[in-house]
Amino acid sequence: MKGPGTSPPLWPHFSSPLRSTALTARLGAVLGICLAVCFGTGLLSHYQYQPWTWLPEPAAPIWIYRVTQGVHVATGIATIPLLLVKLWSVYPNLFRWPAVRSLPHALERGSVAVLVATALLQLFTGFFNVLNWYPWPWSFVPVHRFLAYVLIGSLLLHIAVKLPDITYGLKTRLVDGDVLTEKPWNENPASYSNNDKMHQPPPSTPAISRRGLLVAASGGIGLVALTSVGQTLTPLEPIGLLAVRQPSTGPQGVPVNRTADQAGVRDLAADPNWQLIVSGPDGYQLSLADIEAMAAAEADLPITCVEGWSVGAHWTGIRLLDVVRRAGGNAGSRVDFVSLEPRGSFNHSTVQGPQLSRALLATHLNGQRLDVDHGYPLRLIAPDRAGVLNTKWLKAVTVR
């Protein structure tokens, strides 16, 4: 006759000597740090899209967004294998029997399910965003932001519930054969009797130790980070085997996310009768010849995309502040931009605050007339700003 804790026939059993509370606690600590870094840098990225009026986006140092978004994407990519290793270390707990022993136990298992599901969804959809692949019907940006709050909230709840286990695991030596490996939920390992502890003796011919597993996982995750961060840290570009974008590729040595054909503006951009409409107290229009004659300002500014890649570039064009002042505005004005692109979330943007004084309406990139995929005949370029907000193929500027 089966006892109350006896599992059903054919129920999975696990006997790996590598799993341990000490290993799981260490993996979890690093995972928590990585998720916190992703969350913090993600908030900074979201601020680019919806800045507070009382705290405008800074214009210096010009590399702030390049660093924060580069760290966000590189950390997110490296966290994917880390999460998978962490889940490997604990997934036998899914097969504990009985599956639910009490209401608190059920609530804890439910909270863990939310944490795991949200973490997997957040990291993998974030990676698909880096690839510019969206196999889902919802808008990525708002869902990614809301999921971030769910993820960090469920993570904090999990830490609070499992704090005794985490403390025990971090204090325990990472050795083979003498560490509690799998524990029932909601119990403090320190309170176990000797009969309750499930020891895992080391295999007679071990291929790897727990410490070796941790070192191997760390090395693999570090390799993923090293070979992908070259899209932001350009000196590492030659070894960027996993980098989604290579900074030196693309027209005029700068990558392109959205081409003129994808935006449906190639013919509109090539129209010789194109004009820039500048609206304001003293509105006016600028022809293509006017733009060419006025393009004398130069600036070295990086272009950084939310996908994590960035590259420094030399730009030539018209100082935005000069255009604003001629229209009756000043350095305190709000300036709205509209693209020739007929639709989409990023066919318009706004500049105000410190960025206004350092922004250009660019006509040239790296000494050459703008390629149409980079925004010909005219585009916005400003420091410390997401690439999608540096609107391309401009047709109208409104000074408020």
Keywords:
single chain, alpha+beta, 11 helices, 400 residues
Can you walk me through this structure?
With 400 residues, the protein is an alpha+beta fold. The protein folds into two domains: 21-239, no CATH class; 253-399, Sulfite Oxidase, Chain A, domain 2, CATH 3.90.420.10. Helices cover 40% and strands 13% of the residues. Strands 2-1-10-5-6 form a five-stranded mixed sheet. 33% of the residues are buried.
Task: Please estimate the helix content.
Answer: 25-40%
Number of domains: 2
| Major sheet characteristics | 5 strands, mixed
| Parts with pLDDT < 50 across at least 5 consecutive residues | 177-205
Terminal Cα span: 81 Å
Count of DSSP-assigned helices? 11
How much of the sequence lies in strands comes to 5-15%
**Judging from the principal axes of the Cα atoms, what is the shape?**
elongated
Radius of gyration: 27 Å
Give the class from helix and strand content and strand pairing. alpha+beta
Q: Record the strand order, biggest sheet.
A: 2-1-10-5-6
Mean pLDDT, to the nearest integer, reads: 88
Tell me how many strands there are: 10
State the order of secondary-structure elements, H for helix, E for strand. HHHHHHHHEEHEEHEEHEEEE
